[in-house]
Design brief:
Shape: elongated
Number of domains: 2
Order of helices and strands: HEEEEEEEEEEEHEEEEEEEEEEEEEEEEE
Number of helices: 2
Radius of gyration: 34 Å
Distance between the termini: 108 Å
Strand content: 35-45%
Helix content: 10-25%
Length: about 425
């Protein structure tokens, strides 16, 4: 039998086009796999980044709540790290005294993001303040178109409506819309923490800073060290200062409508705010301050008088406006007529007045007055604890107003404005 050899092909030749097709499929599969791996990697990175950003925002919010709390662990004029977030996060908080107010700062960082903000904050009272608080003395008497809205602490716990110089009482009945209680011997003193903050500013006035010949046109961020400008010039010139600046003047200041101030502190012997001026600042004045017609000190402004000055005199002229705080606290015995605040017809104060002296009120206060008493000057006589045509309405104070709780030992704070 003849054997026929069996021919079995050991390999099959692949055509050139098939080879290219196989290589293409392999490359595409590799690219798809690589793209999937890269997509997964970048998705993971984006998730980590978004998670980090969200955590930093949450840390910032928690740090802000800690700073605003009445029992905040962050001491004044210190930087402190807070135990907020993960171990890889850093949360720093600080409080710096800024006149009657505070600058609160937070810096929150993680591996992916950082948030840094500064804010001007003030105290808020735990209750609605009294419209009027007076020291014990003669009974409060009102005439003309006077009205008082809010609870009051007044001498004898009563008010008398009377005709003065042929001006009968023509205001609402009753003259005081609110609860009335009898005043104590003297008005309450300001809390020591607030006194210390004011004294920190007054110390600058007696420091050895030398006057500088500089243009008063400057802006300084609250993220930078405080800039102190010292001047001793006479006359009027445009002044434009904004931000983290303390202006110390060795001579009286006259500001006209060409000037602009924002958020700064001014320390001077006396100051005259000219007509049509508009700006916001904290004015620390030794002797006297005059705010002329149609001038406006916008929120949050403050007027503070030196406690040891022999005279403290404030005049708000017709149609002028102050939004913020007015404080005159005395530490030396003065004559009755040496601590005077005169709020004239058409003048408006929106905020709080603490005046350890006497107030002549013919304008309007949307807020509260704490004072030793009132006085009324007419062509024929001077009357103690009399108000003619004055309006005090604590309920008209804007609910967003944040100022200073001058009595509370643990003051809860709130935002006034964000700072640059």
């Amino acid at each position: 039998m003849k054997m026929i050899p069996l021919k079995i092909p050991l390999r099959r030749k692949i055509s050139g086009s098939g080879l290219y097709y196989a290589i293409g499929v392999a490359v595409i599969a590799g690219l798809l796999s690589s793209a999937f791996l890269l997509l997964t990697y970048f998705h993971r990175l984006e998730h980590l980044r978004a998670s980090s950003q969200l955590r930093v925002v949450q840390n910032f919010r928690q740090a802000w709540l800690v700073l605003m709390d009445a029992n905040t662990p962050v001491a004044m004029n210190t930087d402190q790290r807070l135990s907020i977030g993960l171990e890889i996060d850093t949360v720093m908080a600080s409080r710096e005294s800024w006149g009657l107010l505070e600058v609160a700062s937070t810096i929150c960082t993680s591996q992916q993001m950082s948030i840094s903000r500064n804010a001007l904050v003030g105290g808020i009272s735990s209750r609605t303040p009294n419209a009027v608080e007076m020291a014990y003395g003669e009974k409060l008497t009102v005439c003309g178109n006077t009205s008082i809205v809010g609870d009051c602490l007044i001498p004898g716990g009563d008010v008398e409506m009377k005709t003065i110089d042929n001006r009968p009482y023509t205001g609402p009945q009753p003259a005081i819309e609110g609860d009335i209680a009898s005043a104590t011997t003297s008005i309450r003193d300001i809390h020591p923490d607030v006194i210390e903050s004011m004294n920190d500013v007054w110390k600058l006035q007696t420091s050895n800073y030398e006057p500088q010949v500089i243009p008063l046109d400057d802006t300084n961020s609250f993220s930078e060290p405080t800039r102190i400008l010292v001047t001793a010039f006479e006359g009027v010139s445009p002044v434009n200062l904004k931000g983290n600046i303390i202006w110390i003047s060795k001579t009286p200041i006259l500001l006209d409508s060409r000037s602009n101030l924002e958020d700064i502190i001014v320390v001077c012997p006396s100051i005259q705010i000219g007509s049509n001026f508009r700006g916001s600042a904290q004015f620390f004045v030794t002797d006297s301050m005059l705010v002329e017609e149609y001038a406006e000190l916008t929120y949050p402004s403050s007027i503070v008088f030196h406690p040891n000055a022999q005279r403290q005199f404030l005049r708000l002229a017709n149609n002028s406006r102050v939004e913020g705080l007015i404080v005159a606290r005395t530490e030396v015995q003065k004559k009755k007529g040496n601590v005077i605040a005169s709020i004239q017809n058409g003048a408006t104060v929106e905020g709080a007045i603490y005046w350890n002296g006497y107030v002549s009120l013919k304008g309007k206060v949307s807020g509260s007055i704490v004072a030793n008493g009132f006085f009324l000057q007419t062509p024929s006589a001077t009357y103690e604890n009399h108000i003619q045509d004055g309006v005090i309405d604590v309920r008209q104070l804007d609910f967003r107003f944040v100022g200073l709780d001058i009595y509370s030992a643990t003051r809860k704070k709130d935002l006034i404005k964000w700072l640059e």
